[in-house]
What we know:
Elements: E1 4-5, E2 29-44, E3 49-62, E4 65-71, H1 81-90, H2 102-107, H3 116-134, H4 138-141, E5 153-155, H5 160-170, E6 177-180, H6 188-196, E7 203-206, H7 213-225, E8 228-232, H8 242-248, E9 253-255, H9 262-268, E10 274-277, H10 279-282, H11 285-297, E11 301-304, H12 311-319, E12 326-327, E13 344-346, E14 349-351
Parallel strand pairs: 5-6, 6-7, 7-8, 8-9, 9-10, 10-11, 11-12
Antiparallel strand pairs: 1-2, 2-3, 3-4, 13-14
Helix pairs in contact: 1-3, 5-6, 7-8
Amino acid sequence: MPWRRGLPCGIASDAAGLTEKPDYxxxxxxxxxxxxxxxxxxxxxxxxxxxxxxxxxxxxxxAGETGFGEGTPIDRYEEDAGxxxxxxxxxxxxxxxxxxxxxxxxxxxxxxxxxxxxxAALDHALHDLCGKLTGLPVWRLLGLRREGPPTxxxxxxxxxxxxxxxxxxxxxxxxxxxxxxxxRDGLDLERVRAVRSVTDVPLQVDVNEYWSVDxxxxxxxxxxxVGVEYCEQPLPAGDPGGAQVKAASPIPIxxxxxxxxxxxxxxxAERAHGINIKLSKSGGIREAVRMAHAARxxxxxxxxxxxxxxxxxxxxxxxxxxxxxxxxxxxxLLLLDDPWPGVExxxxxxxxxxxxxxxxxxxxxxxxxR
Length: 370
């Protein structure tokens, strides 16, 4: 894909506090492409299963530095990697010449639907580029703490014995587990009990919209009885019974499919105790930070989730993990091979490095698409 260069806008930025400013008159060059990752094993949730994951990767060049960002389109929201790459390559001339003008740049993108993963990839690449231009990791640019909560490990949906075996194998490395439920076979509680019988690590469950109101009201007290800490998205997004289930539940309800961007957060307070922010769903780091602060103002808990994506995508989430109560950033650990090393998994926590920007580097050189 040919490089697209932003048109100079004559804006000189001192946001980085640099004594020698880069030559902003050169503009910001963009190229986007699709990539496919093989998963270590088939990943199953209530509505589908997959053996691979497709992402869009953005590369930005400016003043001798290169920033990278990844977004993972979500089928549930009618997005795909090819369309995301096309959208971004068509936006190259909108980037201007100041990579620090993130609000202006992101606001200039066309208001096209089904482009959240594309926006996230660009947002992440801009943050990576700004970090490299200033010599600082993104978490420091944002004024945040380095370390967030421990990540959970996702135990994909299967029969109770199979889920228990996978949980038992993962428990020594992880400080909490997330169990995928929603089998619609009457065995969800047995799945949780089977896992609880082999490990005492904290558990959370994710139903991915596959319970009815009656099923949720019946199951949630029983989940509390086996020590499940919270339940994620028990009902279909927008289900009118959300407030009823929240009121009846003895454990917190977190919503994922109900909460995409800042505009959704206030309504979630009526049906949930917390929200699950995903960067590929929100449109990137900047929107995710706004969502986290809005949730706090409404008394909501904050969870940070991910897709099955490489270390490049996970590294963006790790930068803001300290804003959250719970973290599910295991996407790169689910891959057969992660081509973007740099995120360190230590004592159950995903840690970014002190390297500038997002702190990851491709294992193999990125070919120039020109």
